[in-house]
Amino acid sequence: MSGLGQHLPALQVVVPILVAPMVVLLRPRGLAWAASTAASVLAFVIAIELTLQVLGAGPVGYLMGSWPAPYGIELRVDALSALLLLVVTGASTVALVGGRQSLDAQIEADRQPYFFAAWLLALAGLSGILVAADAFNIFVFMEISSLASYVLIAGGPDRRALPSVFKYLIMGTIGATFYLIGVGLIYMMTGTLNLADMELRIHAVGDLTPILAAAGFITVGLALKAAIFPLHVWLPNAYTYAPHMATAFLAACSTKVSLYVLLRFDFFVFQGNLEGHDLQFAIYLMPLAVLGILVGSAVAMFERNIKRLLAFSSVAQIGYMMLGASLVSIAGLTAGILHIFNHALAKGTLFLAVASFAMVAAGLRLNELSGIARRMPWTFGAFVVAGLSLIGIPGTAGFVSKWYLIMAVMELGPAGVPLVAVILISSLMAVVYIWRIVEVACFAKTEEQGSSAIAVSPLMIVVTWLAALANIYFGLAPALPLTLSGDAAAELLRHLP
Fold first, then answer.
1. Scanning 175, 182, 300, 427, which has the fewest C-beta atoms within 10 Å of its C-beta?
2. Secondary structure (3-state) at 203
């Protein structure tokens, strides 16, 4: 490919990271939002084009400055990173396009340029992680996205976000430090940071003890940043007290990018070089995945704040993703990766609807949402559709990934029966906590509307419904995410001995 098209992997990061400082200078109200939205839409278009290239011709590589890898910086987009790029850029675009009214209500006008600059830096950092092909640049982009995410979470009017951000900062710093220690150990033994070159050079390492230590540091560090149970303690409050649209953006993609790095490292670098590491990977992650599914769902059943409820639901859904990956099979990995995409659709839609509820209701505790379905029937309809997808009702995207996960677990034979029971029980638990919201919204006595309530803009309703319809579309026609997930699973398993 010639012309601008050959530079798309670099432009995926360059566009938002260049627009970010420009946004700071846009003082008139609305201009910062418009510029940020335009940059996000362009990033989404680039992600779509890269996905089409991956589907048509395989992985897309790019050498920065034309320096060959591993001496220069290499960017690479394959099926797994293409799927996650769609999730990250799509979540950012939907949240920005539909969220102006919510953001105007929560972010003071003079602070909006800084907030949107941080948003674009978070987008650039998450995208950079997905296109980087070397361990150190992954760390650099990880820190860019993390620092920007702290600003996004603390940028709203709720001062309770500050201690939440501090906890997130401490936990995120520990995770990043563990990751960097692991990368340093590998570099000490191999002399390279390029992931593909790293995989080859480990074969020549005589003493694998530092590599084993690196595997432990990297796995624990990334598990912490991905909020894998029980390292999820930073997530509920961060999602609960962040501005509503920031929650919609980050809940759809931030932890999933850390899962991407975890899978990339474990399958590309460790499992192909460390004897028995696939078994260690399964033994470490499968119990945590099961506990995350059950504990996250159980806590969500008793939560009274709707954002906190959905945050604990995310802990359970991350468990589904890791359960599929821990099977270390083509079917399991396909199911886990597919659930990354489908959960982003469902949870993004749910938080978009919650942002609309916040404009009308007195608060976001369940008793404060009494009768919200009668006051906001269209928005609540979209919420129900996304809730059905989260549960895994046939005809929704969530059903497809859960069905594939059940089939993958059944490949274990009798040993898979308890895992099937966990999936089914947790789905019933999801019915309970989604129904608690539906019951209050539809059947409880309507409370008096607060004086601060305002009408939700038609654009916000339209965008929320487009996201809800995506849950149905990809439930009935899952070919695109399913193809990318299958190709990604095959690529990951190709590196096993």
1. 427
2. helix
Give the separation between CA 433 and CA 299, rounded to whole angstroms. Answer: 9
Kindly tell me if the per-residue pLDDT of 446 is higher than 70.
no
Per-residue pLDDT of 16-30, as tens digits, reads 999 999 999 887 778
Tell me, what amino acid is at 253?
Answer: C
The label of the residue with tokens 């608060």 reads 363
Q: Residues, the chain, total?
A: 497
Q: Does residue 428 lie in a domain region?
A: yes
Alpha carbons 359 and 197: distance in angstroms, whole number: 52
Provide the token pair at 188: 């000490």
Q: Which of 278, 399, 257, 400 is nearest to 327 (CA)?
A: 278
Report DSSP state, residue 31: H
| Cα separation, 250 vs 247, whole angstroms | 5
Minimal CA–CA distance to 112: which of 289, 245, 266? 245
Q: Residue 74's beta-bridge partner residues?
A: 63
Contact 201, 190 (CB under 8 A): yes
Quote the number of domains for the chain: 1
**Burial class of 276 by CB neighbour count within 10 A (0 to 12, 13 to 18, 19+):** exposed
3-state secondary structure of 493: helix
Residue 431 carries which side chain, given as an amino acid letter? V
Residue owning tokens 């990809």: 474
Domain membership flag for residue 249: no
pLDDT number for residue 472: 95
Task: Please give the Cα distance from 93 to 488 (Å, whole number).
Answer: 24
pTM to 2 decimal places:
0.92
* Helix, strand, coil percentages in the chain from 3-state DSSP, rounded to 5: 80, 5, 20
442 alpha carbon, distance to own chain's centre: 30
For a pLDDT cut of 90, what percent of the chain falls above it? Answer: 54
Residue 157 lies in a domain: no
User: Using CA atoms, how far apart are residues 283 and 169, in angstroms rounded to an integer?
Assistant: 29
Distance between CA atoms of residues 397 and 385, nearest Å: 10
The stretches of 233-329 forming alpha helices (DSSP H) are 235-241, 244-265, 277-302, 306-326
> Is residue 497 very low, low, confident or very high in pLDDT (cuts 50, 70, 90)?
low
Q: Which amino acid is it at 467?
A: A
Range of the domain at 464: 275-497
Predicted confidence at residue 450, as pLDDT, reads 46
Q: Is residue 290 part of a domain?
A: yes
Q: Which of 17-31, 195-209, 337-351 has the lowest mean pLDDT?
A: 195-209
Q: How far apart are CA 237 and CA 7, in angstroms?
A: 39
**Measured between alpha carbons, how far is 300 from 353 in angstroms, rounded to an integer?**
18
Q: Using the predicted structure, report yes or no on whether residue 126 has a pLDDT greater than 80.
A: yes
From 145, 165, 146, select the one nearest 155 (Cα to Cα): 165
* Beta strand 74-77 pairing with 60-63: antiparallel
